[in-house]
Every structure is written in structure tokens, then in C-alpha cells.
Amino acid sequence: MMDFMLDIALKKLPDPIRYQDKIMLIGSCFTEHIGNALGELKFPILQNPNGILFGPDSVCRSLDWYMDNRELTSADLFQLNEVWHSWMHHSRFSHTNPGEAIRGMNQSRQAAHDFLKEAGWLIITLGSSFTYRLTAAASLAGEALHTGVANCHRAPSAWFSKEMLEIPVISQLLAGTIQRLRNFNPALKIIFTISPVRHIRDGVVENNRSKARLIEVVQQLTQFHDFIHYFPAYELVIDVLRDYRFYDIDLVHPNYAATEFVLEKFGLSCIDEETLLLMQEVKKIMIARRHKPFQPDTNAHRKFLADHALKVIALMEKYPFLDLREEQQYFSRELEVGSRE
Q1: How does pLDDT run across 238-252, given as a tens digit for each residue?
Q2: Rounded to the nearest 10 degrees, how much is the dihedral formed by the CA atoms of 206, 209, 215, 216?
Q3: Is 167 exposed, middle or buried (0-12, 13-18, 19+ CB in 10 A)?
Q4: What is the DSSP string of 36-73?
Q5: Do 115 and 22 touch, CB atoms closer than 8 A?
Q6: For 194-243, what is each residue's pLDDT tens digit?
Q7: Are 331 and 312 a contacting pair, CB within 8 Å?
Q8: Cα dihedral sign for 179, 183, 187, 193?
Q9: Alpha carbon distance 230, 112 (integer Å)
Q10: Bridge partners of 193?
């Protein structure tokens, strides 16, 4: 029989992820595909407390902030187009009121500090080796000149210089932060992935060079530390799927089918067997919650709600670590509303 797809032999993690493990995810937009899927299935997660981050310098600096639990002040902000921003935060934290911007950033930082202290896993998705640094033209800066920024906030291009980090620099950044992480939380295990999203604005050749540097550094880290692992999300899309029908219309971002394929492989490689079975039960509950009945006032629908309320209770009794209180309240509330009607 002919093979029409190159396969990658994925090794199971020696100590795979379980539902009891707290998981922090940080990095590029592909991080959020993994995080959203895990969160939907009720894993205890915290993802991108600063918003989406692409480069190793931004990832390391953010993780250092969480460990230090450094409180942000107005000096960390700058104003552009009547909105207050932070160079280290996504624009979802920006606000026309600087006090509100600081409040949101500090709440997220405190949550990250507390969560990271107890996390069992940290999943880091690196997107690019490129970094952007402030120039003298950025006179509004709340940072020193030549500091790397995580988000440019559509500021004028003259405010930034761009460079591709060298392999020794990336290696030193990540190694230093990883050492701090293990001192901060000795039980923490790390999974690195490289985002399969191609940064074609950098140029196709430059994007490949950028990804190659990240892959090389992560490979070195996995060789030297048994608590660091690599999941080949990049290779699964680029080398296994390798077809534009697995991309969105921009020909850059993997589409739903590609993302689901990678997530399935992630489960088989990185998640405990018993947990995979439980995930299927939780998925059924989540599908049932999204169900929109044509006739909500029928006995059949009330039975549907009652049955699933009991299933949720049974799952939580069998697996006390599973938090399905929100779903229990939903089915019970909908059942109560339907009974009154």
C-alpha cells in the first residue's frame, strides 16, 4: 500500500499530563489553540498572562516578571493615539485610563505569579527569533532605549530597530530563565513547541532561518534537561500536512483541520492514557451544553437536561479534581427554567 503522508514517530512523555496538573501556556498565537482546547476540556490552565508573545526575549522577560511579582506602575506605560499601552503587553490590556490599564496588568501578573508557583507544566510556544527594540525616535517610551518590546501597538516603524537574535543569545536567554523557573518551582516540567505560523512579513527565507534558530536551541535544551520536552507542532504542519488546503485564506495560519490534527497528536504524545479517556467524557458534556433545542419546553428536552446534570455530578464524584460546577449549574438552571414554563 502506498503512503501519501510522511509520518512522524511521536514518543510518549515519560510522565504525561494529567487533569490534576496545572498548566501555564505562554507564547505565540498557536499557544492559544492548545490552551483553548485544554481549557474547553476543563484542564486547570492559565494562558498568556501578558497576551500573545512571539520571541524568546519577550517570553523570558515576562516569565521573569511573574517570578519577581514586580508591580507595574505608570512609568511602565506610554500613550499613543489617546490610549495607554505597555510595551510588554498585548493591546487587550490597553486602556484610555492609565489606572485601569495598570490595574488589569497587575491583576494578571499576580495571577500568573500564584499559578506558576504551583504549576506542573509550562508550555512555551516560540514564534520568531526576531526582536524589535526601541530607538531614539520613541520619545514616548516608558522603557530605556534599545529595550526589546513584545508588542509594537501599531506605533511608527521609526520607533523600532529589528534584528534576528543569534543562537547563543537565544540559548543564554532561555537557559537563564529555565534555571530561575526550576528554583522558583522545582517540580515544574516544560514542553516547548515552535509555532507553525509562518511570519512571511519577515520574508520566506528569513522566516525559515528564524524558525531554524529556535528549533536548534530547543533541541539543545532537551538534550541537557530531562524535564524539558519538545512537541513537534511545527513539523506536523510543515512536513506532515504540507499542503495549502490546511491553511486559512492568508496561506499563513493553519486552519481548523490542521489545528485539530496537531491537537490530536498532542494528546497522544503528551497526555496520560486515563486522562485521554476522561477527556472524551468531558467533551460529551461540553457538546451537550452547546446543544440548542428546537423545542425547549418538551419533556424530552427536560429529560436531556436532567440526564446530563446527573452525569456531571457522577463525574465530579468519581473525579474530585474535575471542576464541572459551571456545567452542573447550567443544566440544573435550564431544567428549572423549563419546569416553570
Answers
A1: 999 988 899 899 888
A2: -150
A3: middle
A4: HHHHHTT--EEE-TT----SHHHHHHHHHHHHHTPPP-
A5: yes
A6: 999 988 888 999 999 999 999 999 999 999 999 999 999 999 999 999 88
A7: yes
A8: negative
A9: 23
A10: 125
